[in-house]
Design goal:
Elements (H helix, E strand, L loop, with lengths): L12 H6 L7 E4 L2 E4 L5 H18 L5 E5 L3 E3 L2 E3 L3 E5 L21 E5 L6 H13 L4 E6 L4 E6 L4 E4 L19 H6 L4
Parallel strand pairs: 7-8
Antiparallel strand pairs: 1-2, 3-6, 4-5, 6-7, 8-9, 9-10
Length: 189
């Protein structure tokens, strides 16, 4: 006989989306709910500053918008990237032209910031899921190591730790010119 606490209940995506939001956010992956870790200082600063830098670079020309902690539901998953970037023409809108609340599509660029004790494998799986579903690029920032992994649409991976290197960005985001050192210097301000 199987003990009750050993039975794993699988929810449908629709059932998951009906549940109340959690803090920190929970994600729906392969029929299971996975709660993200509570963001801590380094994570919060990097998320805030990166969102701000992307907004400064992309908003003037209405190229794209950066959304921190936005639920994106697509390809059978519901995930919450630390920063999801959408080209302006792909941003869902309400009938009155305002940004919609539900984003049932993949981001054009997904950015994750590794938290202490967070599974790098789970984060990479979400990035790869995005790439499998049309995302142009994924970034994974590791604040403890001061390095950034960049995943291209073809799933090739590059490691960036040279502080003076300008990081690759998706084609639509060429206005973004960020260096590794500039990003991790935000942690010293």
């Amino acid at each position: 006989m199987v003990a009750v606490n050993q039975i794993r209940q699988t929810l449908t995506l629709a059932e998951f989306l009906e549940r109340p939001e959690t803090k920190p956010a929970s994600e729906y992956v392969n029929g299971q709910i996975q709660q993200k870790p509570m963001p801590q200082g380094k994570h919060s600063i990097l998320q805030r500053e990166l969102s701000f830098a992307l907004t400064l670079a992309l908003k003037p020309e209405r190229t794209a918008q950066a959304f921190p902690e936005l639920r994106c539901t697509f390809g059978g998953r519901s995930i919450v990237p630390d920063v999801a970037v959408f080209r302006t023409e792909r941003i869902p809108r309400d009938h009155d032209g305002q940004v919609a609340n539900s984003f049932n599509l993949h981001p054009d660029w997904t950015i994750e910031i590794l938290s202490p004790k967070q599974s790098q494998t789970k984060v990479i799986r979400n990035i790869l899921h995005c790439l499998d579903n049309g995302t142009n690029m994924g970034w994974l920032l590791d604040p403890e190591e001061s390095l950034i992994f960049i995943y291209s649409a073809d799933k090739s991976v590059q490691l960036f730790e040279n502080l003076e290197v300008v990081l690759p960005v998706p084609e639509f985001a060429q206005a973004v010119q960020l260096k590794v050192g500039e990003i991790f210097d935000w942690l010293k301000e």
